Automatic annotation (TrEMBL), chains A, B:
InterPro entries assigned to the protein according to its UniProt record, in alphabetical order: Homeodomain-like_sf, HTH-type_TetR-like_transc_reg, HTH_TetR, Tet_transcr_reg_TetR-rel_C_sf, TetR_C
Record keywords: DNA-binding, Transcription, Transcription regulation
Domain of life: Bacteria
Keyword Phosphoprotein: no
UniProt-recorded name of the protein: TetR/AcrR family transcriptional regulator
Residue span(s) of domain HTH tetR-type: 1-55
DNA-binding region, residue intervals: 18-37
Keyword Transcription attributed: yes
UniProt xrefs under PANTHER family: HTH-TYPE TRANSCRIPTIONAL REGULATOR RUTR, TETR-FAMILY TRANSCRIPTIONAL REGULATOR
Transmembrane segments: none
Biological source species: Oerskovia merdavium
Amino acid sequence: MLAAAGDLLLREGMAAFTIEKVATLAGASRMTIYKWWPSKGALAFDGYRATVEPTLAFPDTGDLATDLRTQLHAFVRLLTETPAGRVMAELIGQAQTDPELRASLLEHYTVPRRERAAEVMRRAQERGQMRADADPQVVVDQLWGACYHRLLTPDHPLTVDFADALVDNVLRGVAA
Amino acid sequence: MLAAAGDLLLREGMAAFTIEKVATLAGASRMTIYKWWPSKGALAFDGYRATVEPTLAFPDTGDLATDLRTQLHAFVRLLTETPAGRVMAELIGQAQTDPELRASLLEHYTVPRRERAAEVMRRAQERGQMRADADPQVVVDQLWGACYHRLLTPDHPLTVDFADALVDNVLRGVAA
């Protein structure tokens, strides 16, 4: 069910997403779906998470710069080359006036994803690849947060080159 | 009119904002207001810009780190200590499904503000305070974009200490 919901969402976007279509794709009844998900939005968001999770895994090869670039490239491609970007933008947008959606988005998506990114950075700190006094949670906002900024106020392009520049700036600094 | 609109918005937020109240505050008729602004949203956004502009000026004292900190502190305080934060969050949120609002927000707000921030950084590059090969537009996303990220997905606090950590990371880098 989740796979069917996620596939449909990433292929056709939120506008074309219906419980009926998911039911057909999954060979289930609408009744069954409503038993588990209270609304179309809840099913879409759950399907989204389940489907993008493998794409957005945080690698930990032992080299922080490479790992950040790998993850950010996958993240940027997901947001720009599939309907996932529009879906996330609309979810974050709606969350500004929908406290329940906001709570769910934070609890089930942004908080756990932040935590995983921070963990990769903490291991890099233990390996001596990152300053011990730099806060991984701040770096999260300067990498993924910067990408969301270009997604939500799209006056400059969100590209893999941009992702590489983000990693460069944050790792090396921009001071002359 | 703009001053009255901006004052009302920053004092009471978007929910309490009406054309009637602005008319009373400005001693003007509703007809006059409708002649110049097609909607409540348009008037609110124009009033917002006019009112926050002086607060959000970009200083250029000759020291990049100080100037960035000064501007970001004012920006963070505006977003967290006045209803401006909620107003901006709701405007960006609505812009995700309202192409006209998105175009207006980009043209009248984010693009010119980006440009002014980038100009301060280009002058710092000329003074040799910032690497010549660092893209000021990328730094914009890593400072102001990072703040918007905490505003829009509020799972970590948006504070002046956070702003200082952003400037530190981006200027010095986080590599050990």
